[in-house]
């Protein structure tokens, strides 16, 4: 079955054609780097206009087979920016209507989770880790579509924290790769920083305190984010390295103890931040179960993971009549799973829905 996947949840526009949920025939992504450097980040209205401009030419570029041969259209319908989602969903609905093809809506976070399954078949259950610009989620994965959320961020997502930290250090958007690069020349233990802990919720995250600690470190106590930097270029490298080390050590610690507590046989990682080499080394060194990373090109937002997961959604539920763009779309969870797993009782289920 050939599935056309459409991604437009934030600023990337993506189209891909994937066979049977695994084999990628085409995968094209338009980024908005020129707009990022002009506006210093994502401006929703501007991002939406760009989606509209590039949708049709990008679809044509992705169509390595005639449109008639496509069996299913899959579109990311949330979570994300409402305007951007509406553009993708309306486009997909129009295409499905005019061609008579079935359509499914795909949760963007679930698609990041699925990315590590596109070329591999990890042993399950697994601990899924979504680390992106909008999300930091730990998910107990029994199978595709069988999820239980065990932890998430209470404030900034990990990628958002990197983007904000980069801005404080005067680095361009998106900041993650720039922090990683600067940190390569720094000492990760030079400045003692701490990531947040949430009482009674061992697998939740908080990065806003870490970000404020970085602000005071590089701009002085009581500085605001627009104050000038007061540290040397050398210390800037150490600050980037210390920030990166602190944020990722917290993540790795929670991922590994979550995997152990839940009896997971593997770890699946997805989302833009999973490109970070320092994180990959930390997790590989610390984990006692195998780790599955997204194939090349599938960490950041793209249509291939939407098409890949869309295939499974269609197998399970068939096409949808009407798809709604939902900026706060939650991961659909099992309601029974947590009670059936033997180790889950040990730390309570109050934060597990
Ligand atoms: O998954 P993604 O494309 O978008 C969302 O769904 O949000 O992830 C984008 C995020 C940005 O915050 C970016 O700074 C971060 O991924 N990122 C990185 C790296 N490459 C991208 N963060 C840390 N290190 C990297 N090498
Ligand atoms: Zn994403």
Can you tell me about this structure?
A five-stranded mixed beta sheet has the order 3-2-1-4-5, sandwiched between helices. The chain has a five-stranded mixed beta sheet with strand order 8-7-6-9-10, with helices on both faces. The radius of gyration is 20 Å and the shape is globular. The chain is α/β, with parallel strands linked by helices and 353 residues long. The longest helix has 29 residues. α5 runs antiparallel to α8. It has two domains: 142 residues, 2-Layer Sandwich (Nucleotidyltransferase, domain 5); 170 residues, ATPase, nucleotide binding domain (Nucleotidyltransferase, domain 5, 2-Layer Sandwich). The protein is built from eleven helices and ten strands. It binds 5'-O-[(R)-(carboxyoxy)(hydroxy)phosphoryl]adenosine and zinc ion (ZN). Zinc ion binds next to α4.
């Amino acid at each position: 079955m050939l599935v056309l996947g459409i991604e437009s949840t934030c600023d990337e526009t993506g189209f891909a054609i994937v066979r049977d949920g695994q084999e990628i025939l085409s995968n094209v992504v338009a980024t908005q780097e020129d707009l990022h450097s002009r506006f210093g980040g994502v401006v929703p209205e501007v991002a939406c206009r760009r989606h509209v401009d590039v949708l049709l030419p990008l679809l044509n570029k992705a169509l390595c087979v005639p449109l008639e041969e496509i069996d299913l259209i899959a579109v990311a319908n949330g979570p994300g920016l409402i305007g951007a989602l509406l553009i993708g969903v309306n486009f997909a609905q129009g295409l499905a209507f005019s061609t008579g093809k079935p359509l499914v809506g795909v949760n963007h976070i679930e698609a990041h989770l699925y990315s590590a399954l596109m070329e591999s078949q990890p042993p399950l259950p697994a601990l899924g880790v979504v680390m992106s610009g909008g999300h930091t989620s730990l998910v107990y994965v029994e199978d595709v579509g069988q999820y239980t959320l065990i932890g998430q961020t209470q404030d900034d997502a990990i990628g958002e924290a990197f983007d904000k930290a980069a801005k404080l250090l005067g680095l361009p958007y998106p900041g993650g790769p720039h922090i990683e690069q600067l940190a390569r020349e720094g000492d990760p233990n030079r400045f003692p920083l701490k990531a947040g802990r949430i009482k009674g919720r061992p697998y939740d995250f908080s990065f806003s305190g870490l970000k404020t600690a970085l602000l005071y470190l590089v701009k002085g106590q009581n500085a605001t984010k627009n104050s000038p930097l007061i540290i040397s270029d050398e210390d800037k490298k150490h600050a980037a390295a210390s920030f990166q080390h602190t944020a990722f050590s917290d993540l790795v610690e929670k991922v590994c103890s979550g995997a152990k507590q839940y009896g997971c046989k593997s770890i699946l990682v997805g989302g833009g931040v999973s490109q970070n080499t320092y994180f990959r080394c930390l997790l590989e060194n610390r984990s006692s179960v195998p780790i599955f990373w997204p194939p090349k090109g599938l960490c950041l937002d793209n249509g291939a993971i939407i098409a890949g997961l869309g295939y499974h959604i269609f197998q399970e539920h068939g096409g949808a009549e009407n798809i709604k763009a939902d900026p706060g779309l939650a991961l659909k969870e099992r309601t029974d799973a947590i009670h059936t797993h033997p180790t889950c009782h040990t730390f309570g289920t109050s934060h597990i829905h």
